[in-house]
UniProtKB/TrEMBL annotation:
Residues 53-207 are annotated as: Disordered. Residues 553-732 form the Helitron helicase-like domain. PANTHER family: ATP-DEPENDENT DNA HELICASE, DNA BINDING PROTEIN-LIKE. Signal peptide: none annotated. It holds the Pfam family Helitron_like_N. InterPro entries: Helitron_helicase-like. This is Helitron helicase-like domain-containing protein. Residues 53-68, 95-114, 128-137, 145-199 have a biased composition (Basic and acidic residues). It comes from the Eukaryota.
Length: 817
């Protein structure tokens, strides 16, 4: 072999030897202590001179050259590792671990600190650039590796590890500031709650046994000073716990300090359906799921995921840019009930109460609600309406709808657009057109065959599929929702399905739609279910095969989520839909009690005096239906509630305070969660939820913190005002030492003064804003004490004081009245 020599620092062997050494290098290994043999290492052998030369060369290279070299080496190493076998990979890792262990044993403190800092920085960059899947895989691998290490360690290694962890955690906590400590504790509590929620009975028992053993071991090894300090800490903790309630007892009578109450935002999201909740709606046992939105993860309908974009633009007021778009959306919002009624295929009948005067819109009815379906053609002399209009062409249908007096304020162009859209995309509208086409074909065939046309009947089919995961809510077609039968009525299969005839028979009435029919909402509220998908019926079940009740279904629809929901943006139509949903739920419950009187054992109390008292028994004879006392609003429930209230008064004495708390539409929690262009009357769901949270806070202050004193008993009722806002009337019976008996005690509790604006700015602003009628001049002198009656008489110790609860004595509930 011929070598080539250079006069510089570089020495290169011959071509053959150079090519061979680029693949393999040789080293000597002792065999049986006497012989030597060559052994390949898988990488070239580097001499000391070569290492120094490489080090000098790397010191002179630029950052760009270094990046190119590092990337090239990484690519070569990756290809080389892909080609190695399992034995080679194990040998390489073992050699790397030994080399790294020797290097770490020889490094000093400064080198170790620099290495740990570089590793931490590199790991931090890698974690910041990783996505969710990489992070999940890394955490799973770390957990598995840590579990294997802990399983293989002995008692001494485990004790050493726990001692090192405790020392490291103690140092970390000593160096943290107040903000870090405040942030750490809730996170630890939440993490511990999640861990305990996922453990089973065996894990709970094992954890408690381990904790008890560890605590017993600690107490056995503690010294006398440590034991005395522990006992003092326990006694102090128990004392603070006992005295916590006493610190706030009577606080409203001692102090006029004002603190605004705020429930927080909708920051708690359901892990299953994404519904947003307030903090007071979170249960400690299930912090990530809720019962009101999806029954703690048992179903998720996703009903409005594919809502048409053309119609979505009408609900999203924030998207309106031009004056024409704003006018269109304003007209749609103001007349949304008229648009919905004009486009509906079924009619809704109810006695609507119209409130006199000005004020927020409120949809009120009394009596029963009916949903009816008519024939394909109107009777002689009547106008087409509801589903009968869909057999006309688009322009004629729009003119027919605008011809009704109640639709005179609707935008004609918008009515034309909606008529055309529903005629083309709504499955039930297309079914009416299909029936009209079949009728036309039958008339032509009868004329050719010189015979009388046969009867035609369209039957809406039932969906027999059960469960939320079987495609009930896929957009249907006209052939899927209805079938048109041509022939005698006897040829039509008997069914409970809805049927539409060509014309209404003389003397007959419209077809009533059952409250448990899924088509009831689809035919009555086309703007909310534009494609004909959705609806509730008894066959709807959750993931566990359990039936989804009507209340759970509508509660799921009313839940607030980040995704689009036309119901919550429907304004006046939302009020109508909510009232209709409640009536259907109530009617369904009443039907159950009507058909299950024997199961409810109503015969056993049919003649009891508490049932018959006050009822009209002079009506026509027949089967009397007895409502259970558990049915809210029934005569027996109302009578038992009254008897309970009277029994409380007889046992504990007359009430001391009469409190009234009314929902304020200007509460911060309501205003923050309204959509653009909405007012509080457009969101009865939001006002009810916020009022419920405020009422819970009030009850906590009265009955737990005892801000007015210790309460012996209480009774309260929640009502709704004429304009739809909820309010609460509450009677408090105080304990003897907290009863109001003298004029001085009245002055301590009841105040009709306007607070000083300089010393009490929060209370002054609340009273001026919420406690004074706008039409009363502020120059009128208001007396200090306001007691119901002409004078304070001898029975004042048992009187009911009318307390105008402005809540300024302790806190202003967001401006509560």
């Amino acid at each position: 072999m011929k070598g080539i020599f250079y006069s510089g620092d570089f020495f290169v062997l011959g071509c053959f030897l150079n090519a061979f050494l680029s693949v393999q290098s040789f080293s000597y290994a002792r065999d049986n202590g006497t012989k030597y043999k060559y052994q390949t290492q898988g990488r070239p052998r580097i001499h000391v001179d070569d290492a120094q030369r490489v080090r000098r060369h790397r010191e002179r290279e630029t950052a760009q050259e270094r990046n190119v070299r590092v990337n090239s080496n990484a690519e070569q190493q990756r290809r080389r590792r892909l080609g190695e076998s399992t034995e080679q990979a194990s040998a390489r890792r073992l050699a790397n671990a030994e080399r790294q262990q020797r290097r770490r044993q020889n490094e000093n403190i400064e080198e170790r600190s620099a290495r740990l800092a570089a590793n931490a920085e590199r790991q931090q960059r890698r974690r910041q650039n990783g996505d969710f899947e990489e992070r999940s895989a890394r955490l799973a691998a770390n957990a598995e590796r840590q579990q294997r290490l802990r399983q293989s360690e002995d008692v001494q290694q485990r004790s050493e590890r726990l001692r090192a962890n405790a020392e490291r955690q103690r140092e970390r906590r000593q160096n943290e500031d107040a903000d870090q400590r405040i942030a750490r504790r809730p996170a630890n509590v939440e993490r511990q709650q999640r861990l305990r929620q996922n453990e089973d009975a065996d894990s709970i028992s094992m954890r408690r046994q381990v904790n008890a053993a560890r605590q017993r071991l600690l107490r056995q090894n503690e010294e006398d000073d440590q034991r005395a300090q522990r006992l003092r800490n326990d006694a102090e903790w128990h004392r603070r716990r006992r005295n916590a309630a006493h610190q706030t007892t009577g606080l409203a009578l001692r102090s006029r300090a004002t603190e605004a109450n705020y429930l927080g935002g909708l920051n708690h999201r359901c892990s299953n359906c994404g519904a947003l909740h307030f903090a007071f709606e979170v249960k400690q046992q299930h912090p990530d799921t809720f019962s009101d939105c999806c029954d703690r993860g048992r179903f998720n309908l996703n009903l409005f995921e594919d809502f048409p974009e053309e119609l979505k633009e009408l609900f999203l007021r924030e998207r309106a840019v031009t004056p024409e778009e704003r006018h269109r959306q304003r007209n749609f919002a103001e007349n949304i009930r008229n648009f919905n009624s004009a486009l509906a295929m079924a009619s809704m009948g109810a006695q609507v109460d119209t409130l006199p005067g000005r004020g927020p819109y409120c949809y009120r009815i009394h009596g029963q609600i009916y949903h009816r379906l008519g024939a394909l053609h109107p009777n002689q002399g009547e106008q087409r309406q509801f589903g009968q209009i869909y057999i006309l062409d688009t322009e004629m249908a729009a003119q027919q709808r605008l011809g009704h007096l109640r639709n005179s304020t609707c935008d004609p162009n918008l009515m034309l657009f909606l008529s055309e859209w529903f005629s083309q995309h709504n499955a039930y509208a297309q079914s009416f057109k299909m029936m009209s086409e079949v009728e036309q074909l039958e008339l032509e065939a009868a004329e050719r065959e010189n015979r009388s046309p046969t009867s035609i009947r369209m039957v809406f089919q039932e969906n027999r599929e059960r469960g939320v995961g079987r495609g009930q809510y896929v957009n249907p077609t006209a052939n899927e929702v209805a079938v048109v039968y041509v022939g005698e009525d006897n040829d039509v299969p008997a069914s409970r399905n809805l049927a539409v005839h060509l014309r209404q028979a003389e003397g007959s009435t419209l077809v009533n739609i059952s409250d448990i029919d899924k088509r009831c909402d689809l035919l009555t509220y086309p703007l909310l279910f534009p494609t004909g998908a959705g609806g509730w019926d008894p066959s709807l079940v959750d993931r566990d095969g359990e039936r989804i009740t009507q209340m759970k279904y509508y509660s799921h629809l009313f839940s607030i989520r980040d995704s689009f929901n036309p119901i919550l943006r429907a304004g006046k139509l939302f009020q109508q839909f909510a009232v209709d949903a409640y009536v259907k739920i109530e009617q369904n419950r009443l039907n159950y009690q009507r058909t299950h009187q024997r199961d409810l054992r109503s015969e056993s109390y049919r003649g009891l005096q508490d049932y018959l008292a006050g009822e009209d028994i002079s009506g026509p004879p027949g089967n009397r239906i007895v409502l259970a006392s558990s049915h809210i609003g029934s005569p027996r429930a109302m009578q038992q509630s009254y008897q309970d209230a009277m029994a409380i008064v007889a046992r504990y004495g007359k009430p001391t305070f009469f409190l009234t708390v009314t929902c304020n539409p200007q509460w911060r929690e309501i205003q923050e969660n309204l959509y653009d262009g909405q007012v509080a009357s457009d969101r009865p769901d939001l006002t009810a939820r916020v009022f419920n949270g405020k009422l819970k806070e009030l009850c906590y202050d009265l009955f737990k913190r005892n801000v007015l004193g210790e309460v012996e008993a209480y009774v309260y009722v929640i009502e709704f005002q004429k304009r739809g806002l909820p309010h609460c009337h509450m009677l408090l019976i105080m304990k003897n030492e907290w009863k109001v008996r003298t004029v001085e005690e009245v002055d301590e509790v009841v105040s009709a003064e306007i607070p000083n604006g300089e010393t009490e700015p929060e209370a002054h602003a609340a009273v001026i804003s919420y406690m004074i009628h706008k039409n009363v001049a502020l120059t009128i002198r208001i007396p200090r004490v306001c007691v119901m009656g002409n004078a304070v008489n001898a029975s004042l110790n048992h009187c009911v004081i009318a307390l105008l609860w402005n809540w300024t004595v302790t806190r202003v509930i967001g401006g509560a009245t």
